[in-house]
Amino acid sequence: MIPLNQRLKNVSKYIIGDLLADIGSDHAYLPIFAIENNLTKQAIAGEVIKGPFEASQRSVAEHQLGKVIDIRLGDGLSVLEDSNNVTTVTICGMGGPLIAKILNEGQFKLNNKPRLVLQSNVQSSAIRKLLPNLGYTITNEEIFEEKGHIYEIIVADFSEHPGTMTEQALKFGPVLLLNKNEYFYKKWQHEKDALLKIKSNLNEQQHATRLDEINKEINLINEVL
Ligand SMILES: C[S@@+](CC[C@H](N)C(=O)[O-])C[C@H]1O[C@@H](n2cnc3c(N)ncnc32)[C@H](O)[C@@H]1O
Hints:
Layout: H1 6-12, E1 19-23, H2 29-36, E2 42-47, H3 50-62, E3 69-73, E4 88-94, H4 96-105, E5 115-120, H5 125-130, E6 136-146, E7 149-158, H6 167-172, H7 182-200, H8 208-224
Parallel strand pairs: 1-2, 1-4, 2-3, 4-5
Antiparallel strand pairs: 5-7, 6-7
Helix pairs in contact: 7-8
The structure holds S-adenosylmethionine (SAM).
S-adenosylmethionine (SAM) binds at residues 8, 23-26, 46-49, 52, 75-76, 92-94, 102.
């Protein structure tokens, strides 16, 4: 059995169906774990860079899973074919804007309406903003800490009527807001402290616009702390 860090184990809880596509798979650890733990039957591991693609090939060979994990070199969702009935897409370990870009550019590859499990390091709001445009609703979220880093997971499922989100929900997460845990408070207190530090170095005359933006951000954060 492959050992997996807690971050990707948390992601793996949300995998559904028989075909996982893990985009930006690096060493293909998540697909290997998912198959070995019967969370799915088959997987596609997509990678855009040759080094991590070859690392995926090596790990899959070591675990003798070449028959059920297909490793593909290519950009984002372009590695998926229309005939692939993907049931879950995972995109993990990247910033929110890059995950949103991959989804937006490859949206026509989501024809099977797979569940999306997206684990971002920063700026998850970019993902939340995009999801309703793709017909997806956020059905679950998690925030947690591992080795001093705070991570978020967004789970989204296709919906005929994806609702709209308030500015607050887009920034902080509609599900995370309902059940604020210690990591939620830690993350946003840290963001607020960083903004206050930037603010103290700005000059009211020279940086009026930036100061307005920062004050707006701080007010939004104050509302949830
Ligand atoms: C930081 S690693 C994360 C690996 C793994 N998903 C995890 O969470 O541990 C990000 C990986 O995504 C890959 N990547 C970045 N942009 C990509 C894209 N547009 N399409 C496919 N893979 C991409 C990178 O090459 C890198 O291997």
